[in-house]
Write a structure and sequence with these properties.
single chain; 244 residues; alpha/beta; seven-stranded parallel sheet; 17% strand; globular; binds fructose -6-phosphate
Length: 244
């Protein structure tokens, strides 16, 4: 595990984008795992800028998003499909046929989840999984639980997560109660993982992720066991760490 503490969010975003760029320079057809949310927005902006300056190409890259809300149409402004288009894909030279997001509108979600896992396998596995972190320690939508969830699956969202994500919706009642997410097993199978987190609200979850015991009550804590795991946090998110 490698922990990098940055001065602020801008530096975090630059470093995270640099990490992705380094991978794409050595492997232009890399497979990336991608998150939505506020944290990666700065990194996506940096990557868009590199792409538009002609320094970096995504034309051979394949992507798999971590999760999607159940029951939101792709055109819904809160769907993660729309989020990725608006904040990343429509600004870069990626081949849209190589971008993948779980289809949480499917009438057969378990079948869709298996299909998603098979597609990841067929693409050769994920070279770099980029993760944000929930205030409650969730990764993807793998919420604190009694056991570590396996592969891509349907999940009931925690009240904490519904509350945290309600900032994007017109009211808390509009936030879907279920989602489809890659599981802990899907994430741990990725060849390398980079987790990014910023701000005071993440400090407790970061401390538990890095220095706490490995427990499904803090899903991100399992990442301590991954061989190629990098965490990039700003000073606020790192403020409760004692060993770094
Ligand atoms: C989003 C995702 C979530 C977020 C997490 C942090 O695809 O998988 O785990 O990464 O909820 O969200 P932000 O970055 O908005 O604080």
């Amino acid at each position: 595990m490698k922990v990098i503490v940055t001065k602020n969010y801008e530096e975090l975003s630059r470093l995270a984008a640099g990490h992705v760029a380094d991978l794409l320079k050595s492997k232009p057809d890399a497979v990336l795992g991608l998150p939505t949310g506020s944290t990666p927005l700065g990194m996506y902006k940096e990557l868009i800028a590199m792409n538009q300056k002609g320094e970096l190409s995504f034309k051979d890259v394949t992507t798999f998003n971590l999760d999607e809300y159940e029951g939101l149409d792709r055109n819904d402004s809160n769907s993660y499909y729309r989020f990725m288009l608006d904040n990343f894909f429509s600004h870069i030279d990626i081949d849209r046929n190589k971008t993948n997001i779980p289809d949480a509108m499917s009438s057969d979600i378990p079948k869709e989840c298996l299909k998603y896992e098979k597609k990841i396998e067929k693409a050769g596995g994920i070279d770099l999984m980029i993760l944000g972190l929930g205030n409650n320690g969730h990764i993807g939508f793998n919420e604190p639980a009694e056991y570590f969830a396996g592969i891509t699956h349907r999940v009931k969202l925690h009240e904490d997560t519904i509350k945290a994500n309600s900032r994007f919706f017109s009211s808390i009642d509009q936030v879907p109660k279920f989602a489809v997410t890659m599981g802990i097993k899907s994430i741990m199978h990725c060849k390398s993982i980079m987790l990014i987190a910023n701000g005071k609200a993440k400090a407790e979850a970061i401390k538990k992720t890095i220095e706490g015991p490995i427990t499904p009550q803090v899903p991100a804590s399992v990442l301590q066991l991954h061989r190629y795991f990098t965490i990039i946090v700003d000073e606020e998110a790192a403020s409760l760490l004692t060993k770094h």
